[in-house]
Design a protein that fits this description.
This protein is of the alpha+beta class. The chain contains 3 helices and 5 strands, in the order βααββββα. It has one domain: 2-Layer Sandwich (YaeB-like fold). Strand 4 and strand 5 form a beta hairpin. The longest helix has 17 residues. The N and C termini lie far apart (29 Å).
């Protein structure tokens, strides 16, 4: 994908979510690349917080840090810009410099993230 982070990886469940959403939003994979190169680089490399990603701090998970991306530009959703309604949940391993995508969903399909999925993956 890129060389901004040591590694950008996905969970199997994320891949399934993405495949399903790509049928509805054809530009999603390309939009995801732009998201990593722009939004995640700003936040985690340049320390610029444009409030596009917020840490989900009430999970009781200290490491890795779990974030929800609320601003995600999807070209398939014309005229929406970063307020596309696409949400991405990801984990950031700061020590290893790894981004791990956990979940992607469209707010029109479900109201919020799958907390069980996050907890089953990261709760110690």
């Amino acid at each position: 994908m890129n060389k901004i982070f040591s590694e950008v990886r996905t969970l199997t469940e994320f891949d399934k979510d993405l495949k399903k959403l790509c049928k509805k939003f054809r530009t999603l994979e390309e939009d995801l690349t732009v998201f990593v190169e722009k939004q995640l680089r700003l936040l985690h490399k340049l320390d610029i917080d444009n409030r596009g990603c917020v840490r989900i701090s009430d999970l009781g998970i200290e490491y890795p840090q779990i974030y929800k991306a609320r601003k995600f530009a999807c070209k398939s959703l014309k005229g929406k810009g970063a307020a596309s309604g696409i949400r991405i949940i990801y984990a950031y391993y700061s020590k290893e410099d790894i981004i791990e995508f956990v979940e992607i969903y469209y707010k029109g399909d479900k109201p919020s993230e799958d907390r069980k999925r996050i907890l089953s993956q990261y709760a110690r």
